[in-house]
Write a structure and sequence with these properties.
single chain, 6-stranded mixed beta sheet, 21 strands, 6-stranded antiparallel beta sheet, Alpha-D-Glucose-1,6-Bisphosphate, Chain A, domain 3
Amino acid sequence: MNHEFAQRVRAWIALDPDERDRATLEQLLDDDNEAELRHHFDPVLTFGTAGLRGPEMAGPAGMNRLSVRRATQGVIAWLAHLGLDPDLGVVVGRDARLGSERFNDEVVSVLLGADLRVYEMPGPLPTPLVAYAVKRLGAAAGIMITASHNPAVDNGFKLFAHDGSQIVSPNDTIVEAAMARATTPALGTRDQRQHEYISAALLSSYREHMLGRFAVTANEFPIVYTPLHGVGGAFVTGLLADAGYQNVSVVSQQMAPDPTFPTVAFPNPEEPGALDLAFALAREGGAAIILANDPDADRLSVAAHDTQGQWRALRGDEIGWLLGDALLPQAQPGDVVATTIVSSTMLAAMARAAGVPYVDTLTGFKWVSKAAGRGRLLFGYEEALGYGVDAVVGDKDGLSGALAFAQLAFALAVEGRTVFDRLDDLEAQFGVHAGDQLSLRVEAPRGREVLEAVMQRVRSGPPREIAGLALREVIDLEEGWRGLPPTEGLIWHLGESSRVVVRPSGTEPKLKAYIEVVREPAEDLRASRQLASELVETIRGDLRKLLSLVA
């Protein structure tokens, strides 16, 4: 085994507080198993704008107690760099994944050891509550142990800034640099005066605020709900009941938090099959809509009967249009709506018609949440099922999103209409906006290398046409666009009104392509949709060949 690499392994083992992880690495050293050790050490998990996220395993390539200690030390150094008063405190929360409680304990111990005030969630709770608590308490930061909708083997460390939104660059590089300098930290205990649990009153204040906005009269509107084995179950069903919905059925097999996610291949409501049990329950009970959260409940998925009486999951953009349509009439001076450059362009048209300022942002809700500047974000969304319906939460929120969507669906039902009827209205007014995406997964260990090679290939040699549509314009997002910070990605404008955005995922080893075809308003909406959908599918097929992941 390479001597320098072996020394690196021993240095990590010397700092690792976890007996099982130390034993794993020591055994691999004794067996001279360099290949497996490389899996644990390369590539190192880096602290990006989504924090840390990766498989739970020993070594710097995984999420483990030492990785979490080092990340927490990085946060402490970052707060000192910003000059924030440590007495402002850090909110700490966790989901119900396998290692989340252990990692939560490490965060609390390291923060207390550095004499920072800690506001700790009283148990596994949804991510949006951490974002809310940071703003409500005026805390210096928030840390959430979660891997959101990633597979069961993963976990993560998510960092919120003083404003309750996710951090953006260069804060990640400051934390990362401090992590590299981290040594064995002093550890504190929960009996210190700087520690307190988030109170029931604070959690109730979130409920009361959202109920004040989105409650309806008591009703029998039939809803099916699933938290997909995550932490949203009890909180969301309680919210719905208090908001007036007396006919909510839950997917019992998925109601209790379960870190193994036994009924789904991936605990992501966007994935095929994730909502199968909800569909079955909805058909059986005659529900009007299905509401689903991802495991940490910061995302919202919705399904409903389409015009042919079939259950269909709404696209993230369709949910965004409906929520935007419901919220735009509530706009006040200084309000802004926003979505990302990979989302549909319809919200921009809706905002123009309503006379409300609209902002394009980079991909990721961390950018959406900051879009209003000194104004107020009336509504923001990203097509990956992230929605912000109330500015008291500085991040996407699947809890209030569920309440807001239930309210608009109920209001339509009172009129004898459905969400699909309202989508017809919107596309009749603003044109058909058909969309889809292509997601190509890359396997480790060469994932990032392959993604970079493919992006470089299509950047240097873009296609002349796709699906028979001439490539009209190329926008390289690395050069910045419309005042946005540079980011990795390309926008291809095709023909008169079609568009493709190609970019690597920021949280998973995937290459993603986002497709939109827009057709002018037409009397025959069904025919217009059919033509647009066929074109989207043709573009998707051509992209699959063009973006081959053979580097």
